[in-house]
TrEMBL record:
GO terms for biological process: respiratory electron transport chain. One of its GO terms (molecular function) is metal ion binding. It is found in: Membrane. This is Cytochrome bc complex cytochrome b subunit. The lineage of its organism: Archaea, Methanobacteriati, Methanobacteriota, Stenosarchaea group, Halobacteria. Residues 7-232 form the Cytochrome b/b6 N-terminal region profile domain. It holds the Pfam family Cytochrom_B_C. Coiled coil: none annotated. SUPFAM superfamilies: a domain/subunit of cytochrome bc1 complex (Ubiquinol-cytochrome c reductase) (SSF81648), Transmembrane di-heme cytochromes (SSF81342). Residues 244-435 form the Cytochrome b/b6 C-terminal region profile domain. GO terms for cellular component: membrane. It comes from the Archaea. The chain crosses the membrane at residues 39-58, 105-123, 135-155, 200-224, 263-285, 336-356, 377-402, 408-432. It comes from Haloplanus aerogenes. Keywords: Electron transport, Heme, Iron, Membrane, Metal-binding, Transmembrane, Transmembrane helix, Transport.
Length: 456
Protein backbone atom coordinates (compact mmCIF):
# COMPACT_ATOMS: atom_id res chain seq x y z
CA UNK A 1 0.00 0.00 0.00
CA UNK A 2 1.41 3.41 -0.98
CA UNK A 3 2.24 6.03 1.64
CA UNK A 4 -0.47 8.41 0.35
CA UNK A 5 -3.07 5.62 0.49
CA UNK A 6 -2.03 4.88 4.11
CA UNK A 7 -2.35 8.58 4.96
CA UNK A 8 -5.80 8.67 3.29
CA UNK A 9 -6.90 5.58 5.23
CA UNK A 10 -5.63 7.11 8.48
CA UNK A 11 -7.78 10.20 7.97
CA UNK A 12 -10.70 8.18 6.59
CA UNK A 13 -10.84 5.97 9.66
CA UNK A 14 -11.05 9.06 11.89
CA UNK A 15 -12.97 11.63 9.84
CA UNK A 16 -15.00 9.50 7.43
CA UNK A 17 -13.46 11.28 4.45
CA UNK A 18 -15.26 8.88 2.11
CA UNK A 19 -18.58 10.45 3.07
CA UNK A 20 -17.28 13.96 2.46
CA UNK A 21 -16.36 13.03 -1.10
CA UNK A 22 -19.90 13.71 -2.30
CA UNK A 23 -19.59 17.24 -0.99
CA UNK A 24 -16.10 17.73 -2.42
CA UNK A 25 -17.39 16.72 -5.85
CA UNK A 26 -20.16 19.34 -5.87
CA UNK A 27 -20.31 21.25 -9.15
CA UNK A 28 -19.63 24.97 -9.37
CA UNK A 29 -20.71 26.67 -12.64
CA UNK A 30 -17.74 27.89 -14.69
CA UNK A 31 -18.61 31.59 -15.05
CA UNK A 32 -15.94 34.25 -14.54
CA UNK A 33 -18.35 36.79 -13.03
CA UNK A 34 -19.22 34.26 -10.28
CA UNK A 35 -15.70 34.84 -8.95
CA UNK A 36 -16.47 38.40 -7.78
CA UNK A 37 -18.01 37.04 -4.59
CA UNK A 38 -14.81 35.09 -3.97
CA UNK A 39 -12.73 38.25 -4.37
CA UNK A 40 -14.88 39.83 -1.64
CA UNK A 41 -14.41 36.75 0.51
CA UNK A 42 -10.62 36.83 0.18
CA UNK A 43 -10.52 40.58 0.83
CA UNK A 44 -12.31 39.93 4.11
CA UNK A 45 -9.67 37.34 4.99
CA UNK A 46 -6.85 39.82 4.25
CA UNK A 47 -8.65 42.50 6.26
CA UNK A 48 -8.80 40.24 9.29
CA UNK A 49 -5.16 39.13 8.99
CA UNK A 50 -3.75 42.62 8.42
CA UNK A 51 -6.11 44.02 11.08
CA UNK A 52 -4.77 41.57 13.67
CA UNK A 53 -1.24 42.77 12.90
CA UNK A 54 -2.25 46.44 13.27
CA UNK A 55 -4.11 45.61 16.50
CA UNK A 56 -0.81 44.63 18.16
CA UNK A 57 0.48 48.20 17.83
CA UNK A 58 -2.58 50.48 17.71
CA UNK A 59 -3.67 52.31 20.89
CA UNK A 60 -7.41 53.19 20.99
CA UNK A 61 -7.03 56.25 23.21
CA UNK A 62 -6.99 59.99 22.67
CA UNK A 63 -5.10 60.79 25.90
CA UNK A 64 -2.11 62.98 25.12
CA UNK A 65 1.35 61.39 25.16
CA UNK A 66 4.72 62.84 24.22
CA UNK A 67 5.85 61.84 20.73
CA UNK A 68 9.35 60.38 20.55
CA UNK A 69 9.33 58.72 17.13
CA UNK A 70 11.08 59.33 13.84
CA UNK A 71 8.87 62.11 12.40
CA UNK A 72 11.04 65.18 13.13
CA UNK A 73 8.27 67.81 13.04
CA UNK A 74 6.34 66.13 15.88
CA UNK A 75 9.35 65.44 18.15
CA UNK A 76 8.53 66.14 21.80
CA UNK A 77 4.95 67.24 21.04
CA UNK A 78 2.01 66.11 23.18
CA UNK A 79 -0.40 64.30 20.88
CA UNK A 80 -3.31 61.80 21.10
CA UNK A 81 -2.01 58.28 21.71
CA UNK A 82 -4.07 56.83 18.81
CA UNK A 83 -2.38 59.24 16.39
CA UNK A 84 1.06 58.53 17.85
CA UNK A 85 0.53 54.77 17.56
CA UNK A 86 -0.39 55.07 13.87
CA UNK A 87 2.79 57.13 13.25
CA UNK A 88 4.66 54.36 15.07
CA UNK A 89 3.08 51.64 12.88
CA UNK A 90 3.79 53.63 9.74
CA UNK A 91 7.38 54.68 10.35
CA UNK A 92 8.88 52.38 12.98
CA UNK A 93 7.25 48.94 13.07
CA UNK A 94 8.88 46.58 10.51
CA UNK A 95 6.46 46.13 7.57
CA UNK A 96 4.06 48.46 9.42
CA UNK A 97 3.59 50.85 6.52
CA UNK A 98 3.05 47.97 4.09
CA UNK A 99 0.48 46.23 6.29
CA UNK A 100 -1.33 49.49 7.00
CA UNK A 101 -1.59 50.19 3.29
CA UNK A 102 -2.64 46.60 2.59
CA UNK A 103 -5.42 46.90 5.17
CA UNK A 104 -6.55 50.15 3.55
CA UNK A 105 -6.60 48.77 -0.01
CA UNK A 106 -8.23 45.51 1.09
CA UNK A 107 -11.06 47.58 2.62
CA UNK A 108 -11.57 49.47 -0.65
CA UNK A 109 -11.38 46.34 -2.79
CA UNK A 110 -13.77 44.61 -0.37
CA UNK A 111 -16.45 47.26 -0.81
CA UNK A 112 -15.81 47.56 -4.58
CA UNK A 113 -16.01 43.80 -5.16
CA UNK A 114 -19.20 43.60 -3.09
CA UNK A 115 -20.71 46.35 -5.26
CA UNK A 116 -19.72 44.56 -8.47
CA UNK A 117 -20.90 41.20 -7.12
CA UNK A 118 -24.23 42.78 -6.28
CA UNK A 119 -24.52 44.23 -9.80
CA UNK A 120 -23.72 40.80 -11.28
CA UNK A 121 -26.44 39.22 -9.16
CA UNK A 122 -28.87 41.98 -10.11
CA UNK A 123 -28.30 42.08 -13.87
CA UNK A 124 -28.32 38.28 -14.26
CA UNK A 125 -31.47 38.00 -12.14
CA UNK A 126 -29.72 35.66 -9.68
CA UNK A 127 -31.71 37.25 -6.82
CA UNK A 128 -35.00 35.75 -8.05
CA UNK A 129 -37.05 33.05 -6.34
CA UNK A 130 -35.75 31.08 -4.41
CA UNK A 131 -32.66 33.26 -3.76
CA UNK A 132 -34.41 36.29 -2.21
CA UNK A 133 -33.13 35.37 1.30
CA UNK A 134 -29.53 35.46 0.09
CA UNK A 135 -30.11 38.84 -1.53
CA UNK A 136 -31.38 40.13 1.83
CA UNK A 137 -28.39 38.66 3.71
CA UNK A 138 -26.09 40.11 1.02
CA UNK A 139 -27.58 43.59 1.44
CA UNK A 140 -26.93 43.37 5.18
CA UNK A 141 -23.34 42.35 4.42
CA UNK A 142 -22.91 45.36 2.12
CA UNK A 143 -24.12 47.70 4.89
CA UNK A 144 -21.82 46.01 7.42
CA UNK A 145 -18.84 46.31 5.06
CA UNK A 146 -19.44 50.05 4.74
CA UNK A 147 -19.86 50.25 8.52
CA UNK A 148 -16.52 48.51 9.02
CA UNK A 149 -14.78 50.93 6.69
CA UNK A 150 -16.48 53.94 8.29
CA UNK A 151 -15.55 52.98 11.86
CA UNK A 152 -11.94 52.38 10.78
CA UNK A 153 -11.64 55.76 9.07
CA UNK A 154 -11.44 57.76 12.32
CA UNK A 155 -9.08 55.47 14.22
CA UNK A 156 -5.80 57.30 13.36
CA UNK A 157 -7.50 60.37 14.87
CA UNK A 158 -5.85 62.72 12.43
CA UNK A 159 -7.42 66.06 11.53
CA UNK A 160 -8.92 65.01 8.19
CA UNK A 161 -10.41 61.62 9.09
CA UNK A 162 -11.68 62.65 12.51
CA UNK A 163 -13.51 65.65 11.03
CA UNK A 164 -15.06 63.49 8.27
CA UNK A 165 -16.18 60.96 10.89
CA UNK A 166 -17.90 63.74 12.81
CA UNK A 167 -20.39 64.00 9.91
CA UNK A 168 -21.56 60.51 10.91
CA UNK A 169 -22.01 61.69 14.48
CA UNK A 170 -24.09 64.68 13.34
CA UNK A 171 -26.28 62.38 11.25
CA UNK A 172 -26.73 59.95 14.13
CA UNK A 173 -27.86 62.59 16.60
CA UNK A 174 -30.16 64.11 13.96
CA UNK A 175 -32.51 61.10 14.27
CA UNK A 176 -35.59 62.36 16.13
CA UNK A 177 -36.18 60.91 19.62
CA UNK A 178 -33.44 58.23 19.61
CA UNK A 179 -30.53 60.14 18.01
CA UNK A 180 -28.82 61.15 21.25
CA UNK A 181 -29.10 57.62 22.59
CA UNK A 182 -27.40 56.16 19.49
CA UNK A 183 -24.83 58.98 19.53
CA UNK A 184 -23.97 57.87 23.05
CA UNK A 185 -23.74 54.18 22.11
CA UNK A 186 -21.70 54.53 18.91
CA UNK A 187 -19.61 57.63 19.64
CA UNK A 188 -19.63 57.76 23.44
CA UNK A 189 -21.40 61.15 23.41
CA UNK A 190 -20.63 64.52 21.82
CA UNK A 191 -17.96 63.85 19.16
CA UNK A 192 -15.09 63.51 20.04
CA UNK A 193 -15.05 62.50 23.69
CA UNK A 194 -12.42 60.27 25.28
CA UNK A 195 -14.88 57.39 24.75
CA UNK A 196 -15.30 57.98 20.99
CA UNK A 197 -12.21 56.16 19.71
CA UNK A 198 -12.58 53.17 22.09
CA UNK A 199 -16.24 52.81 20.99
CA UNK A 200 -15.41 52.98 17.28
CA UNK A 201 -12.48 50.60 17.82
CA UNK A 202 -14.72 48.08 19.60
CA UNK A 203 -17.22 48.21 16.74
CA UNK A 204 -14.45 48.07 14.12
CA UNK A 205 -12.46 45.12 15.45
CA UNK A 206 -15.10 43.00 17.14
CA UNK A 207 -18.79 43.70 16.66
CA UNK A 208 -18.84 44.45 12.90
CA UNK A 209 -16.30 41.76 11.80
CA UNK A 210 -18.14 39.19 13.94
CA UNK A 211 -21.44 40.20 12.34
CA UNK A 212 -19.83 39.96 8.88
CA UNK A 213 -18.44 36.51 9.70
CA UNK A 214 -21.87 35.31 10.84
CA UNK A 215 -23.51 36.92 7.77
CA UNK A 216 -20.99 35.24 5.48
CA UNK A 217 -21.58 31.85 7.09
CA UNK A 218 -25.33 32.25 6.49
CA UNK A 219 -24.72 33.55 2.94
CA UNK A 220 -22.58 30.52 2.06
CA UNK A 221 -24.90 28.04 3.81
CA UNK A 222 -27.86 29.34 1.79
CA UNK A 223 -25.76 29.20 -1.40
CA UNK A 224 -24.80 25.57 -0.79
CA UNK A 225 -28.33 24.61 0.21
CA UNK A 226 -29.97 26.26 -2.81
CA UNK A 227 -27.15 25.49 -5.24
CA UNK A 228 -25.58 28.11 -7.45
CA UNK A 229 -27.44 29.54 -10.44
CA UNK A 230 -26.13 28.60 -13.84
CA UNK A 231 -26.18 30.20 -17.29
CA UNK A 232 -28.76 28.60 -19.60
CA UNK A 233 -27.33 25.72 -21.62
CA UNK A 234 -27.21 25.75 -25.41
CA UNK A 235 -27.72 22.05 -25.62
CA UNK A 236 -27.81 18.82 -23.65
CA UNK A 237 -24.49 18.33 -21.85
CA UNK A 238 -22.41 15.16 -21.52
CA UNK A 239 -20.96 14.92 -18.02
CA UNK A 240 -19.12 11.91 -16.64
CA UNK A 241 -20.81 9.50 -19.03
CA UNK A 242 -24.36 10.78 -18.46
CA UNK A 243 -26.44 13.19 -20.51
CA UNK A 244 -27.91 16.19 -18.72
CA UNK A 245 -30.89 17.69 -20.50
CA UNK A 246 -30.42 21.37 -21.40
CA UNK A 247 -33.55 22.30 -19.41
CA UNK A 248 -32.94 20.01 -16.43
CA UNK A 249 -32.75 22.49 -13.58
CA UNK A 250 -32.35 19.82 -10.90
CA UNK A 251 -28.73 19.33 -11.97
CA UNK A 252 -25.85 21.82 -11.95
CA UNK A 253 -23.24 21.51 -14.65
CA UNK A 254 -19.86 22.89 -13.68
CA UNK A 255 -16.45 22.22 -12.22
CA UNK A 256 -16.19 19.79 -9.29
CA UNK A 257 -15.44 21.73 -6.09
CA UNK A 258 -12.32 19.60 -5.54
CA UNK A 259 -9.91 19.76 -7.24
CA UNK A 260 -10.96 21.95 -10.23
CA UNK A 261 -12.92 24.78 -8.56
CA UNK A 262 -10.47 24.81 -5.65
CA UNK A 263 -7.65 25.40 -8.16
CA UNK A 264 -9.61 28.27 -9.76
CA UNK A 265 -10.30 29.74 -6.31
CA UNK A 266 -6.60 29.43 -5.43
CA UNK A 267 -5.77 31.48 -8.54
CA UNK A 268 -8.34 34.12 -7.49
CA UNK A 269 -6.85 34.11 -3.99
CA UNK A 270 -3.30 34.68 -5.25
CA UNK A 271 -4.44 37.31 -7.76
CA UNK A 272 -6.24 39.17 -4.95
CA UNK A 273 -3.10 38.89 -2.77
CA UNK A 274 -0.91 40.10 -5.64
CA UNK A 275 -3.21 43.04 -6.44
CA UNK A 276 -3.34 44.12 -2.80
CA UNK A 277 0.43 43.74 -2.41
CA UNK A 278 1.06 45.81 -5.53
CA UNK A 279 -1.31 48.52 -4.33
CA UNK A 280 0.23 48.45 -0.83
CA UNK A 281 3.73 48.54 -2.26
CA UNK A 282 3.23 51.41 -4.67
CA UNK A 283 0.21 53.50 -3.67
CA UNK A 284 0.44 55.48 -0.43
CA UNK A 285 -2.69 55.83 1.71
CA UNK A 286 -4.08 58.54 3.93
CA UNK A 287 -0.93 60.39 5.04
CA UNK A 288 -1.56 61.00 8.75
CA UNK A 289 1.72 62.87 9.29
CA UNK A 290 0.68 65.42 6.66
CA UNK A 291 -2.75 66.06 8.23
CA UNK A 292 -1.50 66.17 11.82
CA UNK A 293 -3.48 65.14 14.92
CA UNK A 294 -7.14 66.04 15.26
CA UNK A 295 -7.71 69.57 16.50
CA UNK A 296 -11.33 70.09 17.64
CA UNK A 297 -10.81 73.86 17.39
CA UNK A 298 -10.15 73.85 13.64
CA UNK A 299 -11.89 72.49 10.53
CA UNK A 300 -9.92 71.36 7.45
CA UNK A 301 -10.70 73.14 4.15
CA UNK A 302 -11.84 69.94 2.51
CA UNK A 303 -13.96 67.32 4.27
CA UNK A 304 -14.78 64.15 2.39
CA UNK A 305 -16.08 60.70 3.22
CA UNK A 306 -14.76 57.58 1.46
CA UNK A 307 -15.91 57.18 -2.17
CA UNK A 308 -18.54 54.56 -1.35
CA UNK A 309 -20.34 56.95 1.01
CA UNK A 310 -20.04 59.90 -1.38
CA UNK A 311 -23.62 59.43 -2.65
CA UNK A 312 -24.96 59.96 0.88
CA UNK A 313 -22.81 63.09 1.14
CA UNK A 314 -24.31 64.13 -2.21
CA UNK A 315 -27.84 64.02 -0.77
CA UNK A 316 -26.66 66.20 2.10
CA UNK A 317 -25.06 68.69 -0.28
CA UNK A 318 -28.09 68.98 -2.57
CA UNK A 319 -30.89 69.22 -0.02
CA UNK A 320 -31.61 72.90 0.57
CA UNK A 321 -31.18 74.02 4.19
CA UNK A 322 -34.84 75.08 4.42
CA UNK A 323 -35.85 71.46 3.76
CA UNK A 324 -36.58 70.76 7.42
CA UNK A 325 -39.70 70.94 9.54
CA UNK A 326 -41.06 70.34 13.02
CA UNK A 327 -43.94 68.20 14.19
CA UNK A 328 -44.81 69.37 17.69
CA UNK A 329 -41.57 69.20 19.66
CA UNK A 330 -39.89 66.86 17.16
CA UNK A 331 -37.53 68.52 14.71
CA UNK A 332 -36.91 66.78 11.37
CA UNK A 333 -33.65 68.24 10.09
CA UNK A 334 -32.06 68.33 6.64
CA UNK A 335 -29.28 66.06 8.00
CA UNK A 336 -31.85 63.48 9.01
CA UNK A 337 -33.66 63.56 5.66
CA UNK A 338 -30.51 63.59 3.49
CA UNK A 339 -28.25 61.41 5.60
CA UNK A 340 -30.66 58.87 7.09
CA UNK A 341 -34.09 58.89 5.38
CA UNK A 342 -32.99 59.01 1.73
CA UNK A 343 -30.17 56.41 2.09
CA UNK A 344 -32.62 54.33 4.14
CA UNK A 345 -35.11 54.47 1.25
CA UNK A 346 -32.36 53.43 -1.18
CA UNK A 347 -31.55 50.37 0.94
CA UNK A 348 -35.25 49.62 1.45
CA UNK A 349 -35.69 49.63 -2.35
CA UNK A 350 -32.68 47.29 -2.74
CA UNK A 351 -34.10 44.93 -0.12
CA UNK A 352 -37.57 44.99 -1.64
CA UNK A 353 -36.47 44.42 -5.25
CA UNK A 354 -36.58 40.56 -5.33
CA UNK A 355 -40.08 40.74 -3.88
CA UNK A 356 -41.14 43.20 -6.59
CA UNK A 357 -39.59 41.27 -9.49
CA UNK A 358 -41.36 38.02 -8.61
CA UNK A 359 -41.04 34.83 -10.63
CA UNK A 360 -41.54 31.11 -10.39
CA UNK A 361 -38.57 29.31 -8.78
CA UNK A 362 -35.77 29.50 -11.31
CA UNK A 363 -32.33 27.88 -11.54
CA UNK A 364 -30.83 29.53 -14.62
CA UNK A 365 -29.48 33.07 -14.78
CA UNK A 366 -30.92 35.57 -17.23
CA UNK A 367 -29.34 37.56 -20.02
CA UNK A 368 -29.58 41.26 -19.04
CA UNK A 369 -30.22 42.09 -22.71
CA UNK A 370 -33.39 40.00 -22.66
CA UNK A 371 -34.83 41.79 -19.60
CA UNK A 372 -35.54 45.37 -20.71
CA UNK A 373 -37.51 46.39 -17.62
CA UNK A 374 -35.16 45.01 -15.01
CA UNK A 375 -32.03 46.15 -16.83
CA UNK A 376 -33.54 49.62 -17.25
CA UNK A 377 -34.15 49.80 -13.48
CA UNK A 378 -30.55 48.70 -12.85
CA UNK A 379 -29.11 51.27 -15.25
CA UNK A 380 -31.23 54.01 -13.64
CA UNK A 381 -30.08 52.95 -10.15
CA UNK A 382 -26.39 53.02 -11.15
CA UNK A 383 -26.85 56.46 -12.78
CA UNK A 384 -28.63 57.73 -9.67
CA UNK A 385 -25.84 56.64 -7.31
CA UNK A 386 -23.14 58.01 -9.61
CA UNK A 387 -24.79 61.43 -9.97
CA UNK A 388 -25.38 61.60 -6.21
CA UNK A 389 -21.68 60.74 -5.72
CA UNK A 390 -20.65 63.54 -8.10
CA UNK A 391 -22.89 65.85 -6.06
CA UNK A 392 -20.90 64.81 -2.99
CA UNK A 393 -17.89 66.41 -4.67
CA UNK A 394 -19.81 69.50 -5.81
CA UNK A 395 -17.22 71.90 -4.39
CA UNK A 396 -14.40 70.28 -6.38
CA UNK A 397 -16.56 70.14 -9.51
CA UNK A 398 -17.53 73.80 -9.12
CA UNK A 399 -14.18 75.33 -8.16
CA UNK A 400 -11.61 73.12 -9.86
CA UNK A 401 -13.42 71.83 -12.96
CA UNK A 402 -15.98 74.47 -13.92
CA UNK A 403 -14.46 77.55 -12.26
CA UNK A 404 -17.76 78.55 -10.64
CA UNK A 405 -19.59 78.22 -7.31
CA UNK A 406 -21.66 75.45 -5.75
CA UNK A 407 -24.72 77.73 -5.96
CA UNK A 408 -24.46 77.40 -9.73
CA UNK A 409 -23.81 73.67 -9.94
CA UNK A 410 -26.24 72.48 -7.25
CA UNK A 411 -29.47 73.14 -9.21
CA UNK A 412 -27.94 71.47 -12.27
CA UNK A 413 -26.91 68.45 -10.20
CA UNK A 414 -30.37 68.25 -8.60
CA UNK A 415 -32.02 68.33 -12.03
CA UNK A 416 -29.56 65.66 -13.26
CA UNK A 417 -30.23 63.47 -10.21
CA UNK A 418 -33.97 63.59 -10.82
CA UNK A 419 -33.93 63.61 -14.63
CA UNK A 420 -31.02 61.50 -15.89
CA UNK A 421 -31.89 58.13 -14.24
CA UNK A 422 -35.43 58.00 -15.76
CA UNK A 423 -34.00 59.15 -19.10
CA UNK A 424 -31.33 56.39 -19.04
CA UNK A 425 -33.98 53.88 -18.00
CA UNK A 426 -36.21 54.89 -20.94
CA UNK A 427 -33.33 54.68 -23.44
CA UNK A 428 -32.26 51.27 -22.09
CA UNK A 429 -35.81 49.99 -22.22
CA UNK A 430 -36.45 51.08 -25.78
CA UNK A 431 -33.07 49.81 -26.98
CA UNK A 432 -33.64 46.37 -25.48
CA UNK A 433 -37.38 46.05 -25.99
CA UNK A 434 -37.28 44.98 -29.63
CA UNK A 435 -34.52 42.43 -29.18
CA UNK A 436 -36.10 40.74 -26.19
CA UNK A 437 -39.24 38.75 -25.71
CA UNK A 438 -40.70 40.26 -22.54
CA UNK A 439 -41.67 37.76 -19.90
CA UNK A 440 -39.21 35.19 -21.15
CA UNK A 441 -36.39 36.03 -18.79
CA UNK A 442 -34.05 33.45 -20.17
CA UNK A 443 -32.88 34.99 -23.38
CA UNK A 444 -30.26 33.77 -25.75
CA UNK A 445 -27.39 33.61 -23.25
CA UNK A 446 -24.87 31.06 -24.47
CA UNK A 447 -24.47 28.10 -22.14
CA UNK A 448 -21.65 28.05 -19.65
CA UNK A 449 -20.40 24.91 -21.31
CA UNK A 450 -19.98 21.53 -19.83
CA UNK A 451 -17.29 21.46 -17.25
CA UNK A 452 -16.30 18.41 -15.37
CA UNK A 453 -19.06 17.91 -12.87
CA UNK A 454 -22.78 17.59 -12.52
CA UNK A 455 -24.51 18.01 -9.22
CA UNK A 456 -28.04 16.83 -8.43
C1 LIG B 1 -19.33 40.45 2.37
C2 LIG B 1 -19.93 40.52 1.19
C3 LIG B 1 -20.24 39.35 0.27
C4 LIG B 1 -19.49 38.23 0.03
C5 LIG B 1 -18.10 37.90 0.59
C6 LIG B 1 -20.25 37.40 -0.87
C7 LIG B 1 -19.82 36.19 -1.37
C8 LIG B 1 -20.54 35.40 -2.26
C9 LIG B 1 -20.02 34.23 -2.94
C10 LIG B 1 -18.59 33.68 -2.80
C11 LIG B 1 -21.02 33.73 -3.71
C12 LIG B 1 -20.92 32.54 -4.67
C13 LIG B 1 -20.17 32.99 -5.93
C14 LIG B 1 -20.85 34.12 -6.67
O1 LIG B 1 -21.99 33.96 -7.13
O2 LIG B 1 -20.23 35.20 -6.75
C15 LIG B 1 -22.20 34.55 -3.50
C16 LIG B 1 -23.46 34.35 -4.08
C17 LIG B 1 -24.55 35.20 -3.93
N1 LIG B 1 -24.54 36.45 -3.35
FE1 LIG B 1 -23.00 37.23 -2.28
N2 LIG B 1 -21.45 38.03 -1.15
C18 LIG B 1 -21.47 39.24 -0.49
C19 LIG B 1 -22.45 40.21 -0.58
C20 LIG B 1 -23.60 40.09 -1.36
C21 LIG B 1 -24.52 41.16 -1.65
C22 LIG B 1 -24.29 42.62 -1.23
C23 LIG B 1 -25.56 40.62 -2.36
C24 LIG B 1 -26.79 41.30 -2.89
C25 LIG B 1 -27.42 42.26 -2.27
C26 LIG B 1 -25.30 39.20 -2.51
C27 LIG B 1 -26.16 38.29 -3.11
C28 LIG B 1 -25.79 37.00 -3.48
C29 LIG B 1 -26.68 36.04 -4.12
C30 LIG B 1 -28.18 36.24 -4.44
C31 LIG B 1 -25.90 34.91 -4.40
C32 LIG B 1 -26.37 33.63 -5.14
C33 LIG B 1 -26.02 33.88 -6.60
C34 LIG B 1 -26.23 32.73 -7.51
O3 LIG B 1 -26.64 31.65 -7.06
O4 LIG B 1 -26.00 32.96 -8.70
N3 LIG B 1 -24.09 38.93 -1.93
N4 LIG B 1 -21.87 35.57 -2.62
Amino acid sequence: MSRSQRLYDWFDSRLDVEQAQGFLGKAFPAEDSFLLGEVALFCFLFLVLSGVFLGFFYEPSISDVEYEGSVAEFQGEEMPEAFVSVLHITYTVPFGMFIRRLHHWAAHLFVASIGLHMLRVFFTGAYRNPREPNWVVGTALAVLAMGAAYTGYALPFDEFAATATSIGYNLTVSVPLVGDFFGEIVFGGQFPTSATIPRLYFLHVLIIPAAIAVGLAVHMAILIRQKHTEAPRDDDVEVGGRTVDRDDDSVIVGLPAVPNQTAVSAVVFFLTAATLSMLAGFLPVHNVAEYGPNDPASTPNLIMPDWFLMWVYGFLKLLPKWFSFSVGSIHVSTEFIGGIVLPGLVFAAVLAWPFIDRTEAIHFTADPLSRPRQTAVGVAAVAFIMIASIAGMNNILAAQVLGTTTDVVNPILTAALLGVPPLFAAITYFLLRDGASEGSDEGATPAAGGGGGADD
